[in-house]
């Protein structure tokens, strides 16, 4: 094997080729990461919506319990008042 002379032109071309390959690799990683982050963001958005739905349902449930409790107290008062008559 003979020695190959390296010239500034050859070195410059090799560095440019390497830079292009690195850029292509980073671009591919960027596209992949962006797609994965979008999936995570969509899942978090869905979880937040579900959490809000649960909060609304629990709020309605608590309101219904309060109404039933007040209704029971009113019925007790009515029975007590009518029993005194």
| Overall 3D form | rod-shaped
Major sheet characteristics:
none
The average pLDDT score comes to 88
Q: Helix content range of the residues, please?
A: over 70%
Tally of individual helices: 1
Question: Roughly what fraction of the amino acids lie in strands?
Answer: under 5%
Q: Low-confidence spans: pLDDT under 50, at least 5 residues? A: none
Q: What is the H/E string?
A: H
What does this structure look like?
The model has no long low-confidence stretch (mean pLDDT 88). The protein has one helix at residues 8-84. The chain is 91% helix and 0% strand.
Question: Keyphrases for this structure?
Answer:
85 residues, mainly alpha, rod-shaped, single chain, 0% strand, 1 helix, 91% helix
Tell me the layout of helices and strands.
Layout: H1 8-84
């Amino acid at each position: 094997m003979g020695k190959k002379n390296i010239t500034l032109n050859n070195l410059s071309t090799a560095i440019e080729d390497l830079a292009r390959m690195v850029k292509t690799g980073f671009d591919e990683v960027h596209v992949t990461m962006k797609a994965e982050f979008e999936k995570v963001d969509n899942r978090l958005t869905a979880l937040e919506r579900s959490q809000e739905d649960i909060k609304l349902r629990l709020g309605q449930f608590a309101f219904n319990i309060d109404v039933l409790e007040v209704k029971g107290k009113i019925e007790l008062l009515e029975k007590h008042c009518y029993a005194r008559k």
